[in-house]
Amino acid sequence: MPAIQVARTDTFEQQRVKINEIGTNLFNVTSGGMEFDSMDTFNVRISTAKLELKKGLSNTGNATIYNKNVEASAKVIVTANNLTTGDKQITEYLVIDNGTDIFFTDTNNVKTGQELISSFWSGFDMFDIDGSQNVRISLTLGADLSPGDDVEVTIVNTITKK
């Protein structure tokens, strides 16, 4: 949401219009009327990403979590929804880096049925640093899913800035 500047030199009518615009924007954000994929404050940034995976066709996907040069850590919540069967899985990760290596822990993992997102990573690291210095998460669908299962994955990041 762009900043709205109300100045003392504005006329009463200009101030009233700007204040109404601020109120409208706040209502739109809090009532879900605005769609956004990132929201910033001074010390924290919240971002989201969505992946659509299909077992047997697109078994893996990745999303940027944070830029290690300007941000320090993240709490990552991954929610997977099997649109074919209705099963769901939610997993929470805490992620931090030292500039070279990434350290993370899986703090919570709850599922209603099959494992939708595999917790075993063969051939690649779950978190890595891409060429733009972004920490990113790579996900792969669970081994026991049926071919053709459609899985929608939503990733919500709460990022601490440096």
Number of strands: 9
Cα-atom radius of gyration: 20 Å
Level-2 CATH architecture of the largest domain: Sandwich
CATH structural fold name of the largest domain: Immunoglobulin-like
CATH class identity of the largest domain: Mainly Beta
Shape: extended
Characterise this structure.
The structure is a single chain. The relative contact order is 0.24. Strand 5 (88-97) and strand 6 form a beta hairpin. The chain folds into two domains: 1-35; 38-161, Sandwich (Immunoglobulin-like). The protein is 12% helix and 47% strand. The protein contains one helix and nine strands, in the order H-E-E-E-E-E-E-E-E-E. The chain is mainly beta. The chain has a six-stranded antiparallel beta sheet with strand order 1-2-9-4-5-6, with no helix packed on it. It has a three-stranded antiparallel beta sheet with strand order 3-8-7, with no helix packed on it. The chain starts with 11 loop residues before the first helix and ends with a strand. The mean pLDDT is 84. The longest helix has 19 residues, at 12-30.
